[in-house]
Amino acid sequence: MRRTSLLPLVALFATGLLCATPAAKPVNLLFIMTDQQRWDALGCAGNPVLKTPNLDRLAAEGARFSKFYSACPVCVPARTVILTGHALESNHVWTNLNVTTSELPAAFLSFDQVLLRQGYRGEYYGKWHAPYQLALDYTRPVRWLNGKSRPPGSKADKSDADAYRDYVRKNVPAHPAASGQLRQKNGVWPYTPIPLDENFGKAAAVKPSQAEAYGRLDIPAEHSSTAYTAKEGLEALERLKDGPFTLTLSLDPPHPPMMVSEPYYSRYPPDRIPLPVSLADPRTNSPYADRAKSAEDARYREPQNIRQMTSIYYGMVTEVDDWVGKILHRLDELGLTQNTLVVFTSDHGEELGDHGLHGKFVFHEGSVRVPLLLRLPGVIPARTVIDAPASHLDLFATILDYLGQAPRPTEGGSLRPLIDRRESGAGRIAVSEWPAAQVPGFMVTDGRWKFLFGRTAHAKSLDALYDLANDPHELNNLIGRNPDRERHRGEATRMKTLLTDWLARLHSPLLTTVQERPVIARSAP
After folding, report:
1. What backbone torsions phi and psi does residue 467 show, to the nearest 5 degrees?
2. Do 496 and 442 touch, CB atoms closer than 8 A?
3. What percentage of the chain reaches a pLDDT higher than 70?
4. Count of CB atoms situated within 10 Å of the CB of 94
5. Which residues, 6+ apart, have CB-to-CB distance to 34 below 8 Å?
6. pLDDT of 94 strictly over 90
7. How far apart are the C-alpha atoms of 146 and 163, rounded to whole Å?
């Protein structure tokens, strides 16, 4: 046979080989979210005390966003933005109230619903704290957060809180409170309070609240709420391993009540924990001058209280890290690591003594800036650090992009071009919202400058401008009651324009009234 006559056969053979090549495996999703974890509560973010080797591994094997912001420093609004890719201005989920019956526009699906309707199997464990209509497509019923009222459409037999209480009663012998111990409201186990606890030294808790409860939880660590949710996740991996799957683990820590079992309680001695630089901030030119009552303010300015509080908080984060390590190890054992996108983030942060404050609800970095880690081996380059600003609003598009799904309507954008270095990040902003009148309702940052602005033309809030490059602890509000505020009018005006442009893109009904608000008030409130 002549040489030329072989060419068509060779071509046909090669084509056959190409046709026989198996398609790439669909990409799975493992989404891990904590509650109230601030951006610097990670070893890889430079924390000098806290050790998080497993989360650091995710960062080393993937991408870390150093300036990632919550869409709202409150649980339910933030989580709704994460799930839907639509801002508070559009989804109208403003508070934590009536969350099980909150109604979103029918067109708003979660990223999980998109995947589940494309043939994925999916399960969700831990805190469900978003409109329940977004929970109705999972392969197994999603338990609601707490309370006896079953949300419309739910097939779950009980709330997550009740399920955990039942688990503890079944697996841990009853343990009455000892002398000096308390029970937190709705708690399943006694705890030993620290002096910062609002009921420290009292025979019984008086109006106990989770936000003011601190101490050593005397339940074995292997039966903590973190362990309970993580074990459910490990069991789910066994069911879902043949893929494609989406699995969410929504872990409660380090959200209050700030309690943790041994060995985590004693992991970080309080006397080795540095105090916040801004602990003694007088807040005379702060939007949050009246954030705390005087007695509460004093408790959260006392150095030993803050060291003990931070010690517990770090212990809670370390417990999460240990379980993340077990989950990542199981992914490895099941051969799922290479085709599973792992996302780790939090809904909002925690002040942890910054500016003499605790909790959330404010636009300071401790409260509004959160971690974001993404890993997909062979696709997301290892040891990638992105310093451009981004927010929860971008997660919906990012997840669908990496999982090969067609783009869906969203008010954010995929972060993949930043990770791939196809975009520099220049001109990017992050916006956070909170429907308040007495404090700023909007925050916008371009990565260096940070602008806090009232929600309407006549809102009584004090506005603020911070230069994060030169004032990372936000101690110097350049406008507000600053006598030299006129010197910074130009920068404040530029930041206001970034905000109003964003509101215009969202067709916000607040656009006109925000435009009418003076960038520097003649007399600060």
Report:
1. -100, 95
2. no
3. 91
4. 18
5. 251, 252, 253, 254, 255, 317, 320, 345, 346, 347
6. no
7. 10
Instruction: Find, among 51, 159, 91, 63, the residue nearest to 411 by Cα.
Output: 91
Q: Are 72 and 388 in contact (CB under 8 A)?
A: no
301-337 pLDDT, tens digit each: 999 999 999 999 999 999 999 999 999 999 999 999 9
The pair of three-digit structure tokens given for residue 42, joined into one six-digit string: 């990670």
Asked if residue 52 lies in contact with residue 317, where contact means CB atoms within 8 angstroms, the answer is yes
Of 402, 444, 441, 405, give the one whose Cα is nearest residue 67: 444
- Give the residue-averaged pLDDT of 354-382: 97
- For the residues 140-168, what does the mean pLDDT come to? 91
CB 55 within 8 A of CB 270: no
84 is written with which tokens? Answer: 């839907």
* Rounded CA separation 262/239 (Å): 31
**Residue type at 209?**
S
What is residue 5's predicted lDDT score, i.e. its pLDDT?
Answer: 40
Please, what are the domains in the chain?
Answer: 28-419 (3.40.720.10), 436-516 (3.30.1120.10)
Q: State yes or no: pLDDT of 8 exceeds 60.
A: no
pLDDT digits (tens, 9 = 90+) for 9-41: 334 334 443 344 345 789 999 999 999 999 999
**Residue 294 corresponds to which tokens in the numbers above?**
């005087």
Closest C-alpha among 87, 96, 100 to residue 142: 100
Tokens of 266: 């004693």
Mind giving me the DSSP string for 502-525?
A: HHHHTT-TTHHHHHHS-SS-SS--
Which has the closest alpha carbon to 85: 410, 402, 407? 410
The residue written with tokens 């509080």 in the block is 309
Give the C-alpha distances (Å, rounded to integers) separating 182 from 176, 198, 204. Answer: 10, 11, 6
Q: How confident is the model at residue 188 (pLDDT cuts 50, 70, 90)?
A: confident
From CA 369, how far away is CA 274, in angstroms rounded?
Answer: 20
For the record, the structure tokens of 251 come out as: 């872990």
Give the β-pairing of 28-34 and 372-375.
unpaired
**pLDDT on residue 13:** 38
Q: Could you give the CA distance from residue 220 to residue 37 in angstroms, rounded to a whole number?
A: 23
